[in-house]
Design brief:
By secondary structure, the chain is α/β, with parallel strands linked by helices. The protein has 2 domains: 249 residues, Aldehyde Dehydrogenase, Chain A, domain 1; 144 residues, Aldehyde Dehydrogenase, Chain A, domain 2, CATH 3.40.309.10. It is built from 15 helices and 16 strands. A hairpin with a 7-residue loop joins strand 14 and strand 15. Helix 6 packs parallel to helix 7 and helix 7 runs parallel beside helix 8. The chain is globular and about 70 Å long.
């Protein structure tokens, strides 16, 4: 296992980047052709063997991650990004379990989505097929290496993974475990490739020079990376630009529940895209609701930036600016605004939100239904934390990302969302008049 990681690191100084990336593309296409026809048992064997390898190599993965984290500290990486980068024993075990969960999912490939017979006797079926070759460009999160590689494999797609330079050692160690799984199952190693260079020009190659190989791109990272991918990619992109998520506390909310949900939505992990960035509180809430919500957040270590009504409720609240309503902090900071009822909350989310994940806390079923119907986000929740915006929590095993697109995939992108379909038509000699 160590020799594989070492060989990847040694290849990172390759001089001809274009030739390297073209070779990766050709290898991926050849692997995708084999994966499209692979048995479910082979794919599942590869995933369970990779999970076993991750557990067996946990010490190697953690040591590699420790080196990445040390360099990140030296480079003054922000706390949110450090949280995304850092691994511990629990997170390594979660990666292994995630692979096993994906293996346990039904295989989507070859599934008949719908079928019907025409009056002329033609039998038509719509059948799931892989997308082909998926390129994933990500920053900081080494666990994406496992999640993305596994989801692509299960859905019959070849993956080209380009992790960030800040997580290069961690990603290489995890990728080596995926390769071990492919080897055990007799599947091509080109099914999951990790770009072996930190040269940022590799991203440019994936965006503009590999459209004959890559069918879809998925960016996972900061706003600048995602914006660049969406602007420059010459193939379809699945992803989201920002995660400006909201929690609206309605006049009919139970205070204890509202405090628990709001604090969890903001503070469980501040650096994830499902973290709440804005709290909206109904002006008709009982008098103690607003001070209690603010106190809970501050006690948890969160800075609160609010409007005049919020500052009157608690002088520890800092004044919010117009920029705060659309900010994705990815930090222990939340914007707080007092609104006049659910309709003003919906209007605020429509103006400032990013169509990612938004939640309402209320015991009024009619108000909840109004919010859920009218908030046009990929994920809307009633009486639950926005931190549930996660493929694993949705029963998908894992996710390759959260999509705010309206075409092809929306919300957590799991195995099923990484497929397309084709029409299979059976006839008995029919010709069209």
């Amino acid at each position: 296992m160590t020799s594989i990681v070492t060989s990847i690191a040694e290849r990172a100084d390759c001089s001809d980047l274009h030739t390297l990336m073209q070779g990766i593309g050709r290898t991926a296409v050849a692997a995708a052709e084999r994966l499209a026809l692979a048995d479910s048992s082979a794919k599942n064997q590869a995933l369970t063997a990779a999970a076993a390898a991750i557990r067996a190599q946990a010490a190697t993965i953690l040591a590699a991650n420790a080196d990445d984290v040390f360099d990140a500290h030296e480079a003054d990486m922000t706390g949110a990004l450090l949280d995304r980068l850092s691994l511990d024993a629990a997170r390594v075990e979660a990666m292994a379990r995630g692979l096993e969960d994906i293996a346990a999912l039904p295989d989507p490939i070859g599934v008949t989505i719908a079928e019907w017979t025409r009056p002329n006797g033609l039998r038509i079926s719509r059948v799931r097929v892989p997308l082909g070759v998926i390129g994933i460009i990500y920053e900081s999160r080494p666990n994406v290496t496992a999640d993305a590689g596994a989801l692509c494999l299960k859905s019959g797609n070849a993956a080209i993974l380009r992790g960030g330079s800040d997580s290069r050692r961690s990603s290489a160690a995890i990728h080596a475990c995926l390769l071990e799984g492919l080897k055990v199952a007799g599947l091509p190693p080109g099914a999951i490739q990790l770009v072996p260079t930190a040269d940022r020009a590799a991203v440019g190659e994936m965006l503009g020079g590999m459209q004959q190989f890559i069918d879809v791109l998925v960016p996972r990272g900061g706003k600048s990376l995602v914006a660049r991918v969406q602007a420059e990619a010459r193939v379809p992109v699945i992803g989201h630009l920002e995660g400006n998520c909201h929690v609206y506390v309605d006049r009919d909310a139970e205070l204890d529940m509202a405090c628990r949900i709001t604090t969890n939505a903001k503070m469980r992990r501040t650096g994830v895209c499902g973290a709440a960035e804005t709290l909206l509180v109904d002006s008709a809430c009982p008098p103690m609701h607003l001070p209690a919500l603010i106190s809970e957040l501050i006690a948890a270590g969160c800075e609160v930036r609010g409007d005049d009504a919020a500052r009157e409720a608690d002088r520890r609240v800092k004044p919010a600016t117009e920029a705060d309503w659309s900010a994705e902090y990815l930090d222990a900071i939340i914007a707080l605004r007092v609104v006049d009822g659910v309709d003003e909350a919906i209007a605020h989310i429509a103006r400032y939100g990013s169509a990612h994940t938004d939640a309402i806390v209320t015991s009024n079923a009619a108000t909840a239904e109004r919010f859920l119907q009218r908030v046009d986000s990929a994920i809307v929740l009633h009486n639950a934390s926005t931190q549930f915006a996660d493929g694993g929590e949705f029963g998908m095993g894992a996710e390759i990302g959260i999509s705010t697109d309206r075409l092809h995939a929306r919300g957590p992108v799991g195995v099923e969302q990484l497929t397309s379909y084709k029409y299979v038509v059976h006839g008995a000699g029919q010709v069209r008049p």
